[in-house]
Amino acid sequence: MSHHIYIPILIISTLLSFTSARTTVFINESTPILLLPSSSSAVGEMSGSCPSPDPRLNYRPTIGIVSHPGDGASGRLSNATNASYIAASYVKFVESAGARVVPIIYNEPVEIIQTKLNLVNGVLFTGGWSKTGLYFDVIEEVFNQVLKKNDAGEHFPLLAICLGFELVTMIVSKNNNILEAFSASDQASTLQFMNNINIEETVFQRFPPELVAKLSTECLVMQNHKYGISPETFQKTKELCSFFKVLTTSTDENNKVYVSTAQSERYPVTAVQWHPEKNAFEWGSSVIPHSDNAIQVTQHVANYFVSEARKSFNRPPNDEVLKNLIYNYSPTYCGTAGKGYDEVYIFTDNEKMARL
Ligand SMILES: *[C@@H]1O[C@H](CO)[C@@H](O)[C@H](O)[C@H]1NC(C)=O
Ligand SMILES: *[C@@H]1O[C@H](CO)[C@@H](O)[C@H](O)[C@H]1NC(C)=O
Ligand SMILES: *[C@@H]1O[C@H](CO)[C@@H](O)[C@H](O)[C@H]1NC(C)=O
């Protein structure tokens, strides 16, 4: 360890004494670590000028997350008829990559949902169980808005996780019975990449090659679903394979194969049947992978998604954003209520009233 401590001291003292001479500094006799002073980037960094930000990118992105019916803990935390929730792990996931969150409360009036969509730079659909009624209709409407914004020239990404994957599959295929039964409740799994897949410009683009390789041999992703779609059904459904490219499949407890990652080539829309947010932020199941590699999976997916949101030009008035951020709500710890989530944001009419 001790030689690491000397290196910065060496760099600083060398800089002090040699800044005006063209000098090469070596860690040891053979390895140059710093070139001074001409074309080296180390000198540029030391001069105190920061490169100007890329004007094509939005460095203050916000993400809308659609709430799911219920309290996330089967009535243990709230029995309010209109309660809906967002597990805090999705919020932390987005925040960890440098974006803020606006909750899109699914049973708010349509005009408010519309207003909130104009405050964000991308949308996340969470896991859950609801596939019918108002929730389905709202997800369908938001999905169509995402496509519309992109068609109008705005880069507006969507990340659909677990239930989100299933709902998007139903919406794109225009077939609400397209899903099949799978046994992948509370299961860590691998991801098997399709043959000859190019991961450039996909959710896996930022993964180091070693991590991509490990995804197919180590159980680095968390599954928790009873439905899914087989690659066969996917490929024979024209609407699905013209919209999505299948990137990976996974195998359930009965060795049945299902599509686990799909990405649109035309839109910045990514659907994952697995839970990238859980590895770093959920502890309720002993099966959730928490290894160094598993945490990197969470981080790379979050970084990919938020980097897509930075390409959105939407820059709404700051005070409108502030009024709607998730920071206006407090999460409830529910690890002791024992329902899989550690923390949830619960939205009820009462809370909405309290904010007015
Ligand atoms: C200097 O660094 C090089 C490359 O890191 C290494 O191969 C070499 O063994 C080092 N030499 C000494 C004397 O530590
Ligand atoms: C919700 O209702 C159930 C069943 O009546 C009850 O056991 C539970 O304590 C209630 N939860 C809350 C937070 O009041
Ligand atoms: C549920 O919420 C909607 C919209 O906020 C409201 O119109 C309705 O009255 C609420 N119902 C109950 C039972 O609170």
Automatic annotation (TrEMBL):
<keyword id="KW-0964">Secreted</keyword>
<dbReference type="InterPro" id="IPR011697">
    <property type="entry name" value="Peptidase_C26"/>
</dbReference>
<dbReference type="GO" id="GO:0005576">
    <property type="term" value="C:extracellular region"/>
</dbReference>
<comment type="similarity">
    <text>Belongs to the peptidase C26 family.</text>
</comment>
<feature type="active site" description="Proton donor">
    <location>
        <position position="275"/>
    </location>
</feature>
<dbReference type="Pfam" id="PF07722">
    <property type="entry name" value="Peptidase_C26"/>
</dbReference>
<dbReference type="GO" id="GO:0046900">
    <property type="term" value="P:tetrahydrofolylpolyglutamate metabolic process"/>
</dbReference>
<keyword id="KW-0732">Signal</keyword>
<protein>
    <recommendedName>
        <fullName>folate gamma-glutamyl hydrolase</fullName>
        <ecNumber>3.4.19.9</ecNumber>
    </recommendedName>
</protein>
<feature type="active site">
    <location>
        <position position="275"/>
    </location>
</feature>
<dbReference type="GO" id="GO:0034722">
    <property type="term" value="F:gamma-glutamyl-peptidase activity"/>
</dbReference>
<feature type="signal peptide">
    <location>
        <begin position="1"/>
        <end position="21"/>
    </location>
</feature>
<keyword id="KW-0378">Hydrolase</keyword>
<dbReference type="InterPro" id="IPR015527">
    <property type="entry name" value="Pept_C26_g-glut_hydrolase"/>
</dbReference>
<dbReference type="InterPro" id="IPR029062">
    <property type="entry name" value="Class_I_gatase-like"/>
</dbReference>
<feature type="active site" description="Nucleophile">
    <location>
        <position position="162"/>
    </location>
</feature>
<dbReference type="GO" id="GO:0005773">
    <property type="term" value="C:vacuole"/>
</dbReference>
